[in-house]
Design goal:
The chain is mainly alpha-helical. The chain has 13 helices and 4 strands. Helix 4 crosses helix 5, helix 5 crosses helix 6 and helix 10 crosses helix 11.
């Protein structure tokens, strides 16, 4: 007769249920399936909307602030010393009233690259840089970003020279970070809107470094 190990069974049960979607997620999926079945929604409509919000619409606040800091030295100084004030000055979704956390802008340079992570959960300034991507919430990213940041960056296509220091910033519910990428060469004379169009969501997290036309959120 096989032995019964209650601790082992409990562990297996916990593992199985840890991979199930949350109850709200299951309800949303059920509603989506019903709307698709009745012809009121296309099968890929929700995914496209979420992708567009995550990649294009949401990150525009951060892109606007970063672009202004590239062309306005006084504003850049404000962003460096008081990021909340800088975002509030542009009316970024009423941040002054709705931001219940301390915000710090960290600047990339020729010798420094910044990377943001939340090792405890997935704290993230949604109002400033859009919805957090799934990989940002994953256990693998949260663990490896601290242990092996260069390896993680290489997987995102960011290959740094040895002289470039990688600084990892760990977000919490009270403390959030946004990376300010370097202004690309050859953009002298560009308007603020044009510059904002170069900024990507990932560049504001730190998993994208070299900005190019066509990659941004505008």
């Amino acid at each position: 007769m096989a032995s019964y190990d209650s601790d082992k069974v409990a562990h297996i049960h916990e593992e199985l249920h840890s991979h199930l979607p949350s109850e709200p997620a299951l309800r949303v999926k059920a509603l989506e399936s019903l709307l698709v079945e009745r012809g009121l929604l296309k099968t890929d409509a929700v995914d496209k909307w979420l992708d567009n919000f995550a990649e294009k619409i949401g990150p525009k606040n951060g892109a606007r602030v970063i672009a202004k800091s590239w062309i306005d030295p006084e504003f850049e100084s404000t962003l460096r010393h008081d990021a909340m004030q800088a975002f509030s000055a542009l009316g970024a979704l009423g941040l002054a009233k709705g931001g219940h956390y301390w915000l710090k802008a960290v600047f990339n340079s020729d010798t420094v690259h910044n990377l943001v992570v939340c090792t405890l959960c997935s704290c993230y300034p949604v109002a400033l840089i859009g919805m957090s991507p799934l990989w940002y919430k994953s256990n693998e990213y949260r663990a490896r970003a601290v242990r092996d940041p260069r390896g993680v960056l290489e997987e995102f296509g960011v290959k740094l020279n040895e002289h470039v220091e990688v600084r990892v910033w760990d977000s919490t519910s009270e403390r959030r970070y946004i990376v300010v990428p370097q202004r690309p060469a050859g953009t002298e004379g560009w308007s603020e809107d044009q510059l904002a169009g170069l900024v990507t969501r990932n560049s504001m997290i730190g998993t994208h470094r070299d900005l190019r036309q066509g990659d941004g959120v505008a």
